[in-house]
Amino acid sequence: MSAGAPEGAASAPAPAPSGLRDRHRAVMPEWLALYYRDPLEITHGEGRHVWDAEGRRYLDFFGGILTTMTAHALPEVTKAVGDQAGRILHTSTLYLDRHMVELAERIAALSGIPDARVFFTTSGTEANDAALLLATTHRRSNQVLAMRNSYHGRSFASIAITGNADWSPTSLSPLQTLYVHGGIRTRGPFAHLSDARFIEACVADLEDVLAQTHGNVAALIAEPVQGVGGFTAPPDGLYAAFREVLAPRGILWITDEVQTGWGRTGDHFWGWQAHARSGPPDVLTFAKGIGNGMSVGGVVARAEVMNCLEANSISTFGGSPVTMAAGLANLTYLLEHDLQGNARRVGGLLIERLRAVAAGLPVVREVRGRGLMIGMELVGDDGSPSPEAAALTLEAARELGLLVGKGGRDGNTLRIAPPMTLTITEAEEGAALLEEALRRAQHAIS
Ligand code: PLP
Predict the structure, then answer these.
(1) What confidence category does residue 170 fall into, taking pLDDT thresholds of 50, 70 and 90?
(2) Three-state DSSP class for 427?
(3) Separation of CA 165 and ligand 1 centre (Å)
(4) How many Å apart are CA 296 and CA 290, to the nearest integer?
(5) Looking at residue 225, what is its pLDDT?
(6) H or E segment at 304?
(7) Mutational test site, ligand 1, from 65, 125, 161, max ligand atoms within 8 Å of CB
(8) Are the CB atoms for 263 and 343 separated by under 8 Å?
(9) How far is the CA of 378 from the centre of ligand 1 (A)?
(10) pLDDT at 65
(11) What is the pLDDT of residues 346-381, one digit of tens each?
């Protein structure tokens, strides 16, 4: 279309797009990812299941995208949202809100960070942006350490600390980011080392990176278990060992708990607790599951760090009343029903079951995970990463009525993160469906 000649009534109307997929393609960005050759339109959900527009039911082994923390349409959350919506949808964080204060109190107490303050955002990206703003302001430095293979979001600042170009749409950066080893146990030059030696090597790498700076680094940001990176975790204690190098230099430790928080990893409420030897992080970010699908994110930091910003600031929608009511009801349910314990028990069984499946299927190189955050890495006949096998498994699983995620360094890892109310029966059912889907994928690639 030439400039100054907008399409209008005078020009011939474009042919009507046939279905929702075509309309999506016509109006949304090309880079907006969609799963499946024939993308799904999900219309409703209940418990661990969702239904598509044709009425087909699926067991949701990806919990939305780790966003359905407890269950789809959990009555407690739906009621809290409905009650709040009936009163008022939104005012402004310039006014007091009971749910917001109470949720902040609960999260501050749970965070493990002393004298904690909480700032609510609408997403994980924005939470990480806020964390970086705090750290760089507090330290008067725009140098940040991040992990290779990390993913932290989609804003200008958070893509600047995302360690894989495939997930960073631009290489321009407002930060000077230094990448260190350690996020993935199974990749990189230290993969063959024992856990203790791996940690030693990563610490030496960190020290080497720091020795090449002017010394004034603001923070290290890390996901305790890399999410988009393929549900891959370093050995326990890595970040405690890092902390021992960072803390004497005043460098802050930001833990990105967007995927790992709220007990999903089973053994710990936060991912950082697997590294707890040297105490809590300075800053913690969260999002995804806490709103059970409502847009709740946030950052927690020691008062001294949180209060370093000089100007007054609000987020128009961060902490809006309906989302706070949802978060509070969801967190209450999670704690009262010990869903961390459920993630440990059911997740443990599911990992065992998937390992048994993997033993008979060469397409699966590894099953790894903690609690209800489980990765299955797929390979071809020659043992090399097979994104094709992952894509085929996803399609086959969908045909069988099971939704899983995928990701990882090579796009060859299935990601399993169901709602944390998953029952043993559902875990068994999902594992059986996945076994069949993997069989079909293996058959197709061999
Ligand atoms: N941090 C981590 C670890 C994530 O996995 C994600 C999203 O996948 C983000 C941050 C960004 O969160 P959001 O998509 O809510 O902006």
Answers:
(1) low
(2) helix
(3) 16
(4) 7
(5) 97
(6) helix 303-306
(7) 125
(8) yes
(9) 24
(10) 97
(11) 999 999 999 999 999 999 999 999 999 999 999 999
Q: What is the pLDDT of residues 216-237, one digit of tens each?
A: 999 999 999 999 999 999 999 9
State residue 4 phi and psi, 5-degree precision: 80, 0
Q: Which of 33-37, 135-139, 253-257, 439-443 has the lowest mean pLDDT?
A: 33-37
Within 10 angstroms of residue 54's Cβ, the number of other Cβ atoms is: 8
Shortest-distance atom of ligand 1 to CA 65? 8
Which neighbouring-strand residues pair with 118? 300
Compute, in angstroms, the gap from residue 288 CA to the centroid of ligand 1.
7
Residue bearing the CA closest to ligand 1, atom 10:
152
Q: Which tokens is 238 given?
A: 């890595």
Question: What are the φ/ψ torsions at residue 150 (nearest 5 degrees)?
Answer: -85, 160
Give the SS3 label for residue 201.
helix
CA–CA distance, 249 with 218 (Å, rounded to integer): 10
- Which burial class, exposed, middle or buried, applies to 138 when counting CB atoms under 10 A from its CB (0-12, 13-18, 19+)? buried
Atom from ligand 1 closest to the CA of residue 126:
16
Return the best residue to mutate from 62, 152, 285 for the ligand 1 pocket (most ligand atoms within 8 A of CB). 152
**What token pair was written down for 218?**
């603001």
**What values do phi and psi take at 251, rounded to 5?**
-80, 130
Judged by DSSP in three states, 406 sits in: strand
Report the alpha-carbon distance of residue 162 to residue 154 in Å, rounded: 9
Cβ–Cβ under 8 Å, residues 229 and 150:
yes
pLDDT band per the 50, 70, 90 thresholds, residue 87: very high
From the CA of 316, how far away is ligand 1's center (Å)? 20
**Residue 254 — φ and ψ, nearest 5°?**
-105, 120
For residues 204-223, average pLDDT:
95
Contact 133, 122 (CB under 8 A): no
Structure tokens at 25: 């393609």
3-state secondary structure of 83: helix
Cβ(181)–Cβ(148) below 8 Å:
yes
User: Please, what sign has the CA dihedral across residues 166, 167, 171, 175?
Assistant: negative
Residue with tokens 């089973």: 266
**CA–CA separation, 401 and 380 (whole Å):** 25
